[in-house]
Here is the input.
Amino acid sequence: MLARCTTATLQGLEAIPVDVEVDLGPGLPALQMVGLADTAIHESRERLRSALRNSGLRVPLTRIVVNLAPAALRKEGTGFDLPIALALLVASGQLPPERLAGLWCAAELGLDGQLRPIRGVLALAIAARRAGARALLVAEANGAEAALVDGLGIWGAASLRQALELLSPDGPSRQDQPQPRLLPPRPPAAAAVDLADVQGQSHGRRALEIAAAGEHHLLLVGPPGSGKTMLARRLPGLLPPLSEAEALAITQIHSVAGLLQHGPGLISERPFRSPHHSCSATALIGGGGNPRPGELSLAHHGVLFLDELAEFPRDVLDQLRQPLESGEIWIHRSRLQACFPCRTTLVAATNPCPCGWHGHDSARCQCLPSRRARYWARLSGPLLDRLDLQVVVQPVTAEQMGQCYRPRPVAPEPAGSENTAGVAARVREARERMQRRNRDRLSNGSLSAPAFRRCVQIDDTALTLWQQAIRARRLSSRSADRVLRVAQTIADLNGARKIGVSELGEALSYRSFDQIS
Here is the structure.
């Protein structure tokens, strides 16, 4: 007898429908898998036998052939355990075939018949709704994740036996299904790291505010202990709250990567990813035989922090160039291609030289000019071109550090110690000005070049100064465009209608390392 059940396999961020076909025929007892299945799927034979037996179900003592169609599509993962088991029960007459009509399912089976969660259930639920499925059956731990998709019945089961009860004629009512999605409220800024903790660093704080408002990439250069990491970790708190569409996109990426903690609701906080400088290109960009998202995509709508930037291999860093500009990364393989979104704000931090003390008042640097040149040669000119804000971070003085330990009632609030909430309010107002100005409702750093040219406003004196700066500094067309974008963001933060000389002058002060290559 032949039976079918529908599931899906992941390709990039998408779930591709797969028909699981099970046929029982004459011959010695055996279970054969066909259809380009990976090792995890082939190993399901032993899980199936144990799960069926320990659930009080009969294992057919005959020749069993399982086909995963389309046969030319590679499949991977343990989510095929449940659909194979249900199709096998239909083929052996232990489950009526009409119970699987219009049903999608995916879950891993334990030897005791328990259903275990799998990655990528959110993508699978989106594909099931698109295909017009009546319901999706998943492990109980995946139920809340699948319920983020409206218009699809979601059934969560803890075991194979419970899954069969859900497939009975008395099936689940709407009240039995996982709760629909609710976007959790954003925690107050005081609960996270606060910008008020940063003492001094007025130039770095201002650059952080500009980066948050316009989604500009930021490079922080300074000696060890000058506060580069401390500044970077406070950037997510300055960004506006996530929209529901952004939260759903982030949740789907983390689900496909297998990093989503199984629980209710969407990811409500902007991600902050900080990979070590020893990570490979695949870990940073994404890839693999069946491509998965890398750190760049996991930071989508958030912050990617690359500490010790010059310690990353140059060939790994250069792979960031195109994705940082386009906001997406295409990964091509011989049989497939996958696209991952990566609209992130890059914050990079590095020392000024190998020992880290070049330019410091202590005069501890012993690096020869040739050694410093080799150190900076690890960063290519095209990559530096794409870093809109390049800031030298000076060490904090003893007086500024002492402000942290003075009694609050006695010491006045230090200048430039505004907290995260105050700066975030200005960032939000600046973003609203940007979005009203362009129909794509994007920030200055994310707009395409034609769209930015249509909406930029600059007075004649500032335009002349900009042209002079291009000639004097020998700026590339990309660097010149980035200067103008930063100046427009500064104007938006200042509430100015046009870019003036002061806004352009401040923007030019953030281009410190253009000539290094």
